[in-house]
Amino acid sequence: MESSCLPQQSENRLTFAPGDGFHAAIRQRIDDYFRRTGRRQRDCPEMYRKLAIILTWFAVSYALLVFVATVWWQAVPLAFALGVAMAAIGFNVQHDGGHHAVSDHLWINKLMAMSLDMVGGSSYVWHWKHGVLHHTYVNILGHDDDIDLGFLARLTPHRKRLKIHRFQHWYMWALYGMVAMKWQLFDDFRNVLTGRIGTSRLPRPRGWDLVTFLMGKVVFLTLAFGVPMLLHRWWVVCLFYIGVSCVTGIVLGVVFQLAHCVGEAEFPLPQGEPARIDNGWAVHQVQTTVNFARTSRLAAWMLGGLNFQIEHHLFPRICHVNYPELSRVVEQTCREFGVRYAEHKTFWGGLAAHYRWLRELGRPLRA
Asked: Of 18, 102, 291, 324, whose Cβ has the fewest other Cβ atoms within 10 Å?
């Protein structure tokens, strides 16, 4: 069973300490769980039902907003529903598809991953930024681009503090609303044109990857602007695009931060030459990640198992509908090996922890 997606090309590649038996033990126990229960790791019926519900939710919300709504009190709740549906596609459809966790069939995973292109992102760039760099080097400054927001925020204690960061626990919530628009209209194009993701090299897309990238942007821009402008005034279309994107961005930005940018997560630095992390890869994944709301069925369904981030980082190619049960196996194994298994009991607990982390890292350094 494959539990990680290691980089194929990275000029900043570093290594991890040799495993101490934890990784082998947890893989064996997860394999035993599936043999004992007879459950599928992928191609799970409940996952396909969820995919159908979420994609229908998106299609109906879009159709009603663009073709049916005629007054603001109809359009506003539909815009909100569409924004949340787009986030649900990211959490569930695209995320599992991009990790090859939906199906044993490559074409199904590819199709699900391309749902990100439909809503304005790039499945190609996401593979490198999230699937490779983040999942391998989580919370390592200079390697995990997710914790590097430039001067706008200090998410790791190893980033230089600026005066503006004193207020980051207030203004970051608004900036999260810009996440989706930034991906859709700027970041993907910049990454492909420069061949870079932060300090890491991004192989430029070629062949069908390039076709998918370009056609995905065309489809998204047509859905977001082209079709609506045939029926509505341009400024109304732009206004509602911003509104929908802000809803999507806030939901995506907040949820992804709760697992890694909190005080319970570690932010290790590479040591030595060549650079190496002191822990083994599997231990590193657990200690840099924090679960939240494990007992909430609503959170597990809506967030695509992202509230079980520890299990996801250890086994990204297992469909997320299995994570609630797998988390018991993982937690018990962590206890036996003395590996800290961190969690917040509720979503609000995780949200409060992220707020405290932003506030703590924004405070002036004490002499």
From this structure: 18
Phi-psi region of 205 (alpha: psi -120 to 50; beta: other; left: phi over 0): beta
Q: Count H helices, E strands: the chain?
A: 19, 6
Tens of pLDDT, residues 325-341: 999 999 999 999 999 99
Residue with tokens 């599928």: 40
Q: Which 3-state string (H, E, C) describes 284-348?
A: HHHHCCCEECCCCHHHHHHCCCCCCHHHHHHCCCCCHHHHHHHHHHHHHHHHHHCCCCCEECCHH
Three-state secondary structure call for residue 13: coil
Q: Which of 225, 189, 171, 223 is nearest to 355 (CA)?
A: 171
Judge contact between 216 and 118, C-beta under 8 A.
yes
Q: List Cβ neighbours of 365 (8 Å cut-off, separation of 6 or more).
A: 161
How far is residue 204's CA from residue 187's CA, in Å, rounded to a whole number?
14
Q: Which helix (H) or strand (E) holds 62?
A: helix 45-63
- Measured at the CA of 148, the angle between CA 145 and CA 154, to 5 degrees, comes to 155
Structure tokens at 129: 């930024």
Task: Residue count of the chain, please give it.
Answer: 367
**Amino acid sitting at position 276:** R
Say which amino acid occupies 73. W
Q: Check if the beta carbon of residue 310 is closer than 8 Å to that of residue 291.
A: yes
Confidence of residue 142 (pLDDT cuts 50, 70, 90): confident
Q: What is the pLDDT of residues 88-118, one digit of tens each?
A: 999 999 999 999 999 999 999 999 999 999 9
User: Which amino acid would we find at residue 249?
Assistant: G
3-state secondary structure of 64: helix
Q: How far apart are CA 169 and CA 62, in angstroms?
A: 33
